[in-house]
Queue: 2 jobs
Job 1
Amino acid sequence: MPGLPNQTADTVGELFALQESQPPWLLLLEFQTEPDPEMFGRLLGELGKFWREHRPDSLRGSRYQLVAAVVNLTGTPESLPASRLFTFPLRNLGLGLAAEERHLATESAGGTLDAIARGETARSILAFIPLMTGGGEPGIIQRWLDIASAEPEHRKRDGLGHLALAMAELKPWFGEWQKALKEWNMRESTVIQGWIDRGIDRGKIETLRDNLRTTLTVRFGTVSPEILRRIDESTDFVHLDRAFKQALVVARPEDLPL
């Protein structure tokens, strides 16, 4: 939020116009695993709350301008659009929201890789390639490996591999990505596999539980006692790790695979 330090899973951005004078914008960004029929209402509710509770400065009457964007990890534009327009038949009354919506299933994996290779698109977008059209083709996976291997920072390189694998779980070609990344140079993957082979250290499981609880609290504010109990009782590292990755994108805590 404006005035607060950056946090993992931020969903609100404060934007300023560089070449003209106008009030700043609040951008509400939502990621969802699949199109949500409640997204239009959720966006209206959150935007209204931000508009009422946050102001760009202390001047009387100052308000943020509002805009929203939605990234659908699965689904198509015909699924369940977040944008709606209600027009009353009398006196030109109405209410609507036009959100920028992107459906990764309709994006071209090959075209996106070309743009990343040319430096036109950020390398971080590699994490979403498995979700795109053609994302399970052997040639696409090999190109992904080649481009991702060029990342000079090993932590970013490893992170790309983990995120891509998490995204691939949403697609039928998860097995192909799992096999391709198994032998890829990901330091954390080796460490995690070692924990699995030797038996997971309880302290590492508790750390993952804490991270999961924190992520849910940051995203949703209040988490039910039942969800917290299931987190506390889980002793499966792989299961908790999968739930942690899903916590970044699920629409509500109850959708977690716990």
Job 2
Amino acid sequence: MPVILEDRPREQVKEEVIDVLVYNYSREVISNEAFERRLDAVMDAKSNAEMMKEIEDLDATPDDAIKQQREESFSVNYAHEATEDEDWIVNVMGGSDRSGHWTVPKKLNIVSVMGGSTIDFTDAQFSTPNVTINSIAIMGGDKIYVPENVNVVCKVFCLMGGIDNKAPSVAKRNAPTITITGFALMGGSSISVRKTIKEKFIAFANQMKMAFGKEHR
């Protein structure tokens, strides 16, 4: 006897519903506007029934490729090759940027004096599940961007400065953890998500639509 809908895990139902939306959008069964409207409704739904309502008029069932591609796109990237255990970024009256595809060391030391860095982990490859950022900010600071599937812990001592942590930190237990330590004097850092989960789903859906279009040219 199948489990009743409302007793099923909420996240599992959400993934299944979004897979159906992505599948139908990629095959142009529903428009871009309809896809985003329904995606918003699913993300805001308070019950499994509310989520299922958004696909009740869609007959197509997604194949395993959609699920497999989603898991690959949304999972944290781990490096296959060894990397440095420790790295340094120093900014004195200037700034630097580390983003795109780069390998995260076990410990990243950032020194910002009247300057700062932009550190983006969105497309980075992790070499270890536990990363430490030791940040020294004096009349300066850093902007740190993390994906939603990463946990963030702040342990920074602040004097006439501060840390603005807007990362959700609702990742799974086996997700990487970034621990930020250090000292902020008349400065500090901000931590936020550059690409929200909704934006990632939209990008993934467009990726699937392009892939399906190429298959049928």
